[in-house]
Design brief:
This protein is of the alpha/beta class. It folds into four domains: 9-96, Alpha-helical ferredoxin (Fumarate Reductase Iron-sulfur Protein, Chain B, domain 2), CATH 1.10.1060.10; 103-157, no CATH class; 167-300, Glutathione S-transferase Yfyf (Class Pi), Chain A, domain 2, CATH 1.20.1050; 312-427, Rossmann fold. It has helices at residues 9-12, 26-31, 38-49, 57-64, 71-75, 82-96, 101-113, 118-133, 136-143, 151-157, 193-196, 198-210, 226-230, 234-247, 261-267, 270-273, 281-290, 294-300, 320-325, 330-337, 360-363, 365-382, 392-405, 414-424, and strands at 174-175, 183-187, 213-216, 255-258, 291-293, 312-316, 342-344, 386-389, 411-413.
């Protein structure tokens, strides 16, 4: 008999219903509805978990409209682990509802095959690259056709780019440190990032090499399972966690590195996913003890200061899963302020969600678009030349925002800024 995925009563009981979380919640700020606030959603979870209410379409809608940004965790004085609760609620819904057959088929293809299969990701990537490089994308966008396509047209603007050669070819390789080796680290390239952020992954390796790291990109690694967890597919996520733990023996590395904040939160919570797995629980504890966001790792070591000047102004958008999930705020700012020539301009409400949230901007595009428009008001107010963040999903969302609501400001990851500075040192 399958174990219930429902939220645990002990976790639910930590909420004292004080309401201090309300103003931190993006959906509550937009809608002003108690049922779309953390407190309201927890109340609904209690009713369903205790059997006082059924899993209805209304309940499902309120839970799925949550961005799982975890800003409420930062605001909560009682230490409610809301991220764990909403993920459990979604898994419980998934365990107890029947979706239409075509929805099940699509979810099975995307989560069960596409995200887990490099060959399929490559095919999708090359198709996307042809669409972009052939001029077809530019033609369709300039024709105004997308405006008549409604939601499909909106989604096209949020589609990630494709960056051949894809990063899959680097998996299994070892990259030596520049100068004496100080650290031996493993790098996790992700899934979609291997297609859409191949250059970011390469920049991450170069920056690590510049800082005395021998970088191993372990063979056998794959999707972290974050998108699966957020979508209620915990069994798939558990299997992916086991594969990554097997592929990356924690005892062999000083640190295990990711450059994707959204992935990092899930990678650091593998022990929660595998808490009932006697064969993997202790392994998961060792794994998460070594797991680091790239900004977290670099800010904790003696950073190589040999950088060229960039002579630009930047503002930083906190990734929700870095700021609220992993509690990392200072590290990215420390690194950016270490770059010569950079003028740092702090953004108001920098940790308010931009609306990306994994695939949220695809599934709930209307809410995501409104949140992005709000975010760009704060971005534009800084008058910064560059927008910087620490998560690929945020980068896609902010690029769309800069094009639609800004001045086409370039959007970079923190390590891309460092990489540019290192490459400019000595005129290189």
């Amino acid at each position: 008999m399958a174990v219930s995925e429902a939220p645990k009563q002990a976790d639910l009981d930590r909420c004292v219903h004080c309401g201090l979380c309300l103003n931190s919640c993006p959906t509550y700020r937009e809608l002003g509805l108690e049922m779309d606030s953390p407190r309201g959603r927890i109340y609904q979870m209690v009713q369903v978990t205790t059997g006082k209410a059924e899993i209805t379409e209304s309940y499902q809608e309120h839970i799925e409209l949550c961005l799982a940004c975890r800003a409420c965790e930062t605001a909560c004085p009682s230490g409610v682990q809301y991220g764990r609760l909403v993920e459990a609620a979604r898994a419980h819904i998934e365990q107890n509802i029947d979706r239409p057959w075509h929805v099940n088929m699509l979810r099975q293809f995307v989560f069960g095959h596409l995200l887990q299969t490099p060959f399929l990701l490559k095919i999708a990537g090359y198709g996307l690259y042809f669409y972009q490089a052939s001029g077809l994308q530019g033609l369709i966008r300039s024709s105004g056709l997308l405006k008549s396509m409604g939601k499909l047209g909106e989604l096209e603007s949020l589609s990630p780019g494709a960056e051949p050669p894809f990063f899959f070819d680097q998996i299994g390789k070892v990259f030596p440190s520049e100068g004496a080796r100080k650290h031996r680290v493993a790098f996790l390239g992700g899934c979609i990032a291997n297609v859409s952020f191949a250059r970011l992954n390469e920049a991450t390796i170069r920056v690590l090499q510049k800082n005395g790291c021998e970088v191993i990109v372990p063979a056998g690694q794959g999707c972290c399972g974050a998108l699966h967890v957020h979508s209620g597919l915990k069994d798939m996520a558990r299997e992916l966690a086991r594969k990554n733990i097997d592929a990356v023996p924690a005892d062999s590395f000083d640190a295990i590195i990711t450059n994707a904040a959204g992935c990092g939160s899930t990678l650091k919570e593998y022990d929660e996913l595998l808490e009932h797995d006697s064969a993997y629980y202790e392994k998961s504890k060792k794994f998460i003890a070594k797991m680091k966001d790239v900004t977290e790792f670099l800010a904790a070591i003696d950073l190589n200061p040999n950088m060229g000047k960039l002579e630009t102004s930047i503002t930083y958008q906190d990734s929700c899963h870095l700021a609220h999930g992993q509690k990392i705020r200072t590290a990215p700012r420390k690194l950016l302020n270490a770059v010569p020539g950079v003028t740092f301009k702090e953004m108001p409400l920098s940790d308010l969600c931009c609306g990306s949230a994994g695939i949220y901007n695809v599934v709930h595009s209307e809410m995501a678009s409104q949140l992005l428009e709000n975010k760009m008001v704060y971005v534009n107010g800084t008058k910064a030349d560059w927008i910087v963040t620490a998560n690929p999903g945020c980068m896609i969302q902010l690029q769309a925002g800069a094009a639609k609501h800004g001045s086409n400001q370039p959007v970079y990851h923190v390590v891309e800024v460092l990489d540019q500075a290192y490459r400019r040192f000595g005129g290189k």
